[in-house]
Amino acid sequence: MYRRHCAAAAITLVCAMAVLASPVQAFAAPAPPSPAPAPSGKKTLEEVRQEIDGLYRAAGSATDAYNLAEEKAKKQSGEIVKLAQAIVEGQAKIAELKDRAGAQARDEYRNAGLPPGARLMLSGDPQLFLDGISRTRQGQKATKGLLGEMNRTQEDLETYTQDASTNWTKLEANRVKQAKAKKKINAQIAAAKKLESQLEKKERARLLQLEQEAEYKSQTAWLSSGALKEINREASARGKKAVAFATAKIGLPYVWGAEGPKSYDCSGLTSQAWAAAGRPIPRTSQEQWRQLPHIAIKDMRPGDLIIYHSDASHVGMYIGDGAIVHAPRPGRNVTLAGAGSMEILGVVRPDK
């Protein structure tokens, strides 16, 4: 217990040192002093920070929509391929059945078109007649079975064709969704980068400090609430593997839509970490929140996923002692952060 509180304090201290290490003047308190009034019509640096944060949040939400559309498109493409294979196999089977039916028709033609029963009656041989009755019945049964099989195969082909058409329509719809989400993501990121580029070097450094101070303030408030008091559970075997995978990616850049191996977005990192641990999970943070079992914060253990913001647009992996590993946003790298440094929506456990 003492070790855990020391580690939690260390996380807080690291956050504070990051703030104090900023190249501009540091402040002992986590919250910055009231900014000087901005010239008329000009936004304060804090307002710019909030606007940039909002743009990246919107880009993150759009990234989730893009990733979900991409995942569905991949699934539908796979279904279309399977259906196409089934259609080809069905057509080959129909061709084979038609050949067999043709062979029967040719056999009857060679016998002057007389049905088997009539040929037996005309044979004049009672024993041949009796022996042939069984063969005739078998032949009739085979013919009936052949026709039934042809009908079933034809019905299957029609179903496969309809399903393929439906999946193709869905595929095209998801491609449209992808294109719209991609356009929105690029627009939001471009707008955020433009805002940052208009700042002077000193202002950009101060902007980073404001970002760190906001995270520090949230983390401190979360720890002060006593949220960490009962969190002392060990990771599961798979959870340890997932944590090892995610922490090994620290320093790699955030790229929206990326699933590795050289870059990740937030849910790309968590989904790949759990896939490496042998437990595939949904691709997006919103689907992870929707589909995975929910866990109380007090019951968290390393490997669990913390979902952030009211729209579940961000996710990080809890690694213990009040910290997460996550891919924050464009322009940032995979890193450690305080678990309470953002608005927590809830916690999910992939291997419950």
Brief write-up:
The chain has 8 helices and 6 strands; from the N terminus they run ααααααααββββββ.
SSE diagram, text form:
Elements (H helix, E strand, L loop, with lengths): L1 H19 L24 H66 L5 H6 L4 H72 L3 H24 L12 H11 L18 H11 L8 H7 L2 E2 L9 E4 L5 E7 L2 E4 L8 E4 L5 E5 L4
Antiparallel strand pairs: 1-6, 2-3, 2-6, 3-4, 4-5
Overview of this structure, please?
Strands 1-6-2-3-4-5 form a 6-stranded antiparallel beta sheet. Helix 1 packs antiparallel against helix 5 (201-224), helix 2 packs across helix 5 and helix 6 (237-247) crosses helix 7 (266-276). The model is unreliable at 1-40 (pLDDT under 50). Helix content is 61%, strand content 7%. It has 8 helices and 6 strands. With 352 residues, it is an alpha+beta fold. The radius of gyration is 33 Å and the shape is elongated. Strand 3 and strand 4 form a beta hairpin.
